[in-house]
Amino acid sequence: MKVIICGAGQVGWQIARHLSGERNDVTVVDNNADLVRRATDSLDVQGIAGFASYPDVLEKAGARDADMIIAATHSDEVNMVTCQVAHSVFEVPRKIARLRSKSYLTAIYSDLYRRDHMPIDVVISPEMEVAEAALQRLSAPAAFDTEKFLDGEASLMGLTIDDDCPIINTPLRQLTDLFSTLRSIVVGIRREGTLFAPEAGDQLFAGDACYIMVHNEDVRRALEIFGKTHRKQERVVIIGGGNVGLTVAKELEARADRIRAKVIERNRVCAERAAEALERTIVLHGDGLDVALLQEANIERADAVLCVTDDDKVNMLAAVRAKSEGCPMAIALINDPTLEPLMEPLGIDAYINPRSVTVSSILRHFRHGRVRAVYSIGDAEAEVIEAEVLSTSPMAGQKMRDIDFPEGVIVGAVRKGSKIVRPTGAMVIEEGDQVVIFTLAKDVPEVERLLQVSIDFF
């Protein structure tokens, strides 16, 4: 597939790395020649220096025969105009735009993005998606990573295995026998920095980070089995009152199960804006690293602190400071993936990677087959793909044990009609079933082949 990525910043570079690694024809466009050079030097991509919205620049990038354009520059307006030019001048079939301004994202104006108005097929909002990821982390405090699938009825949860975990040194096949009614399955294990898909004879050891797929009704029981407690969040302190922090605070206010939130924001203008937008949330103006201010926010009584400023190092330090003041759980927003190995030594319980969130949302529209959702794990090491099985799929009509899955692939959940079931070897995968598949990055092409459909569905 031929793809043009407009914007060679953090998000654009990450998307380019992901897609070029799968042998797609990728061209990166940015008006900053240094960023273009960085992309072409480190990735197998072509680069064009220039403004992405200029027709002559898109022509040089090969827009006339491009299959998709992803507009991910820092300017909403440039991204929108780029999609318009790609549609009107070059008839690019698929157009994705990253939009950050809330005014453009308001639901009552969604009619703006029709093909006869502003022809954008998919709108990606990093701030809103990161805010949703933050809310999911808060809803599952025992997990370091979490994502919902099958219309929110099943969850992928990342759990650290502690020394007191009751199922340490137990082969996974025995877990299936011991907890036969539990709709949960271990789909991935990270051990000594390496992520792999486990086999039935593999065991869990202290220090492992494992990923489980679990039905929402069985979450509490699954956490108990893995030695975790399900804590209800009632008080949250949010450090950073920008777009992400404000969105999270608004959502917490709107929830039926009342969660009391306090926001700390260093910038006076942002703090005043947040105070005006929020009804029941207390907004404090000051530095989130200030011990006196944290004490004023009653950090020692909070159930969690969410650090979502625009500075990774501030988020990390604020999380550590809050933990030292007695807060039991700290979540930090981290853009730089090289900082992620520091999370555990620093005692930070969970982190959110905005690039991973954005890449996941874009991959959903890139994968072949009737793909409903994609979640990228780690530094693009693996994906969890939710898809509908169509009649032309090689999986349709086959027993699970007879499907030729690669070693790095595990089916974590299956929905048949309205019922979500745990996969077994004897289960027959039928047309119309929805499957959630964990796959290592190297096996994604083979999973796409298994989900392949007729050309009508592309």
Automatic annotation (TrEMBL):
Task: Give residue ranges for domain RCK N-terminal.
Answer: 1-124, 233-352
InterPro entries, A to Z: K_uptake_TrkA (IPR006036), NAD(P)-bd_dom_sf (IPR036291), RCK_C (IPR006037), RCK_C_sf (IPR036721), RCK_N (IPR003148), Trk_Ktr_HKT_K-transport (IPR050721)
Output a single Gene Ontology CC term carried by this record: plasma membrane
Q: Which domain of life is it from?
A: Bacteria
Q: Which SUPFAM superfamilies match?
A: NAD(P)-binding Rossmann-fold domains (SSF51735), TrkA C-terminal domain-like (SSF116726)
- What are the protein's GO molecular function terms? potassium ion transmembrane transporter activity
- Known Gene3D superfamilies for this protein? NAD(P)-binding Rossmann-like Domain (3.40.50.720), Regulator of K+ conductance, C-terminal domain (3.30.70.1450)
Residues forming the RCK C-terminal domain are: 144-228, 372-453
Q: Which UniProt keywords apply?
A: Ion transport, NAD, Potassium, Potassium transport, Transport
Q: Under which name does UniProt file this protein?
A: Trk system potassium uptake protein TrkA
